Amino acid sequence: MNIRRDVFQAIADPTRRAILSLVALHAMTPGVIAEKFDSTRQTISKHIQILTECQLLQQDQNGREIYYQINSKKMKEIADWLLPFQKLWDDRFNRMDKVLENLKQKKNGK
Amino acid sequence: MENKTQIIAETGKQELFIIREFDAPRELVFKAFSEPDLIIQWLGPCEMETVVEKLENKTHGSWRFIHKDPAGNAYAFNGVIHEVCYPERVIRTFEFEGLPERGHVSLEFLTLEKLENDRTKATIQVIYKSMYDRDGHIQSGMERGVVDSHQRLDALFNLMKHESR
């Protein structure tokens, strides 16, 4: 549960979200990522570290360079996290449809 | 046409929206949201019995619902009703009594919009005390209770089946 919370905390930050959408295009070195932002390299590097710890970014060593790419499995997990909540409400409202159908019939029967 | 429930929960915000259209006029949808004998037919998860202990559906009224599962566990929710404006709006607070501490209250706005062909659009906007309260509510399954544990058991059984092969 705590790890889960950290993930959402990680993507709650606008800079980290920007990093994710940048890296989603293609894998990048930390240097290239930092160039796209006004913040210091150190700040960006901290953000990258948090995203990596939450497994949203994956490291890929290519020769001397480290490339960061998005972990699509983890990203999908985030997209899916609403599904049980949505299903709860979907089931509720499907039951309400029946209640409304009964009410309509009763009204017409009068 | 199937009416699908839409949940909007933007990352980093402390609110969410639950949106659904109904094939019924607004007055009836309002009734289904407001009358205890109708609420118990749709609100609770199937396995649970919903008890409307109290529902003063009026401005400055209050409410308390209890979901009971077959094992005897009870999940209670309560709040006060800020405003009832028939047939378009109900504003109320919501608190789950099963949390370890008090004070995690959310504010709910139910808005019913009249659509063409006697259809109605319901929007529930929920505003939480914090981002964590919102995400916690979405994840907790506090309204699912036993359903959730059944699903967990099913998953466990499936796993055991796989492993015994």
Please give a quick description of this structure:
Helix content of chain A is about 70%, strand content about 10%. With about 110 residues, chain A is mostly helical.
Task: Describe the fold and architecture.
The complex is a heterodimer of chains A (110) and B (165). Chain A is mainly alpha-helical. Chain A has helices spanning 2-12, 14-25, 30-35, 41-53, 72-80, 83-109, and strands spanning 57-62, 65-70. Chain A folds into 2 domains: 2-70, Arc Repressor Mutant, subunit A, CATH 1.10.10; 81-110. Helix content of chain A is 71%, strand content 11%. In chain A, strands 1-2 form a two-stranded antiparallel sheet. In chain A, helix 2 crosses helix 4 (41-53). The longest helix of chain A is centred in the C-terminal third of the chain and has 27 residues, at 83-109. In chain B, 27% of the residues lie in helices and 38% in strands. Chain B has helices at 26-34, 36-42, 131-140, 146-164, and strands at residues 6-8, 15-22, 49-55, 62-68, 74-85, 89-96, 106-114, 120-127. Chain B has one domain: Alpha-D-Glucose-1,6-Bisphosphate, Chain A, domain 4. Chain B has 4 helices and 8 strands. With 165 residues, chain B is α+β, with helices and mostly antiparallel strands. The longest helix of chain B has 19 residues, at 146-164. The relative contact order of chain B is 0.18. Classes of the chains: A mainly alpha (110), B alpha+beta (165). Chain A binds chain B through residues 1, 4-5, 8, 11-14, 17, 81-82, 84-86, 88-93, 95-101, 103-104, 107, and chain B through 3-5, 7, 9, 11-12, 18, 20, 22-24, 28-29, 31-32, 38, 41-43, 45-46, 131-132, 135, 138-139, 141, 143-144, 148.
